[in-house]
Every structure is written in structure tokens, then in C-alpha cells.
Design brief:
Length: about 280
């Protein structure tokens, strides 16, 4: 009797697993479209346009949004990344060193600065360094402070990226160089490190994207009107005009930098993947 109750009706088509999965996915897509349409219909688009996408307010932001906000953002991020790359390379070599004190120092630095929020590093550089060294200041003023703060953070992440790249270089490369009479240091400098840096360009590009976003923390150093980066520039103009359009425009400027860099990193990863095949 149980078999008779569970048996499908005669002649009823039986759905395959693939067909059922397609129907479920179609229902999910339909539910998502309905939810988007409902939210769009309920939104007050006039208020959104006036407060977030006001054309008159947006036009008044240029060219200062580019010549001040975007320019300073790039200066902070690029200078901090350059310092981080140099320090990260040294830390990576120390992490791989046979000398235990070097390894201990590099490991402690990497763990500490990867674990601390970047905001604390900016506050330490802006407040702690002047207190520790009275009467002295970093070269470059705010630009120097922002570069050092971003460099300290970036060095910890770049060190791990570079270390992974060095360890990915086949050991035979070093052995071949040593068999030709090269010292270990020379083989590392001329053979291993150049190959490692080439392999880690995609993750280093992603790291640059992170530093571009972290540059917004420069406001905690105490920037002047000409030293404001995109986030601070948009915030100040939003408060001045009682309108959020400057913040939206600042966000678009961030995306204009980070999206192409992210796309470049993905292309480089795909290219390296094809070369390894």
C-alpha cells in the first residue's frame, strides 16, 4: 500500500536533477528581480538625486577634487607603498635568514603590524613620534608622516608577499647560480629576488589598492586645506554645502583608481597562470 501511495501518477513526466536545479535557480533570479523592482519603486528618487547626485554641486567640485583630493591620495599611497616595498623586501630576507635574531625581529614586526589597525599606526606616527623625539619631525611634514604610516603598515603585508614569492622560486635556480661560482648573496640578489618580484606583481598591485583606501586615514594626522585627500576633501565639502554629493563624487574617484588596478592585477594573474602551463 505504501508503494502505491508514493508511486508517481501514470504518464507524469519526471524532472531530472539538472532540470530541478534550473527551476530553483530561475525562482531565485525571479525573487531577486522582484525585490530590486520593489525597492526601486519605494525609493524617493527625487530626494536621492538632490542629496546624493546633485549635478550643480558636483560641477562645483572640479577641478579641486582632482588637483587636491585625488593628487594627494595618489601621493600618500604611492610614497607609502614605495617605502613599504623597500622595507618589506628587507623584512622578507630577514624572515628567511639563517640568523635567528633576524627571523625573530622580522616575525615580530610582521605579526604586530599586520594585527594592528592602520588607524593606530597613523595616530602613533602623528602623536607618538614627536613625543619620543622632541623638537624633531619627519621630513615632508604631513606628506612624510602619511608616507611613513602607510609604509609601516604596507611593509608587513608586502614582506609576506615577497617571502612567498622567494620561496616559490625553484631551488634549482640557486643551486645553478652557486655552481657557477656566485655567492649566496649575489645569487639571491641577481637571480632569486628578481624572479620573485616578477611573480608577486599581482598581489603587490592589490596591496597598492589597499594603501589607496588607507590613505583616507591621513585626516587623523591633521591636514591643511591643500593636503586633504579624497575622503577628507569630500567630507569637508559635504559639510560646507549640506549635501552628500561630494562624498559620492569622492567615492567615484576612488573607484576610478581601484577598479582599473584590480583589473590589471587579474590580467597579470591570468597571464602568469598561462605561462606556467
Amino acid at each position: 500500500m505504501a508503494a502505491l501511495r508514493t508511486a508517481p501518477p501514470a504518464g507524469a513526466p519526471r524532472l531530472s536533477r539538472r532540470r530541478r536545479r534550473g527551476l530553483v535557480r530561475g525562482g531565485q533570479y525571479a525573487a531577486f528581480v522582484v525585490a530590486v523592482v520593489v525597492l526601486a519603486l519605494l525609493a524617493d528618487w527625487h530626494s536621492i538625486q538632490q542629496n546624493f547626485l546633485n549635478p550643480a554641486t558636483a560641477r562645483g567640485l572640479f577641478p579641486d577634487m582632482i588637483t587636491v583630493g585625488l593628487f594627494n591620495t595618489l601621493v600618500y599611497a604611492l610614497s607609502g607603498s614605495a617605502l613599504g616595498l623597500a622595507a618589506g623586501l628587507v623584512l622578507a630576507l630577514m624572515r628567511l635568514s639563517s640568523a635567528a635574531p633576524y627571523r625573530w625581529f622580522a616575525t615580530a614586526y610582521i605579526e604586530v603590524f599586520r594585527g594592528l589597525p592602520a588607524l593606530l599606526i597613523f595616530i602613533f606616527v602623528a602623536v607618538g613620534v614627536p613625543l619620543a623625539y622632541p623638537g624633531r619631525e619627519l621630513p615632508g611634514g604631513v606628506y612624510g608622516q602619511a608616507a611613513v604610516a602607510l609604509g609601516l603598515v604596507s611593509a608587513a603585508f608586502m614582506a609576506e608577499i615577497i617571502r612567498a614569492g622567494i620561496e616559490a622560486v625553484p631551488r634549482g635556480q640557486t643551486e645553478a647560480a652557486r655552481s657557477l661560482g656566485m655567492s649566496h648573496a649575489r645569487a639571491l640578489r641577481t637571480i632569486v629576488v628578481p624572479q620573485a618580484l616578477r611573480m608577486v606583481i599581482p598581489p603587490l598591485t592589490n596591496e597598492l589598492v589597499s594603501r589607496i583606501k588607507d590613505s583616507s586615514l591621513a585626516l587623523f594626522i591633521g591636514v591643511t586645506l591643500t593636503e586633504r585627500e579624497l575622503s577628507k576633501f569630500g567630507q569637508d565639502l559635504a559639510n560646507q554645502k549640506s549635501n552628500s554629493t561630494p562624498i559620492v563624487v569622492a567615492g567615484v574617484c576612488y573607484l576610478a583608481i581601484t577598479i582599473p588596478l584590480g583589473y590589471l592585477a587579474r590580467r597579470l594573474e591570468d597571464r602568469q597562470r598561462k605561462e606556467r602551463r
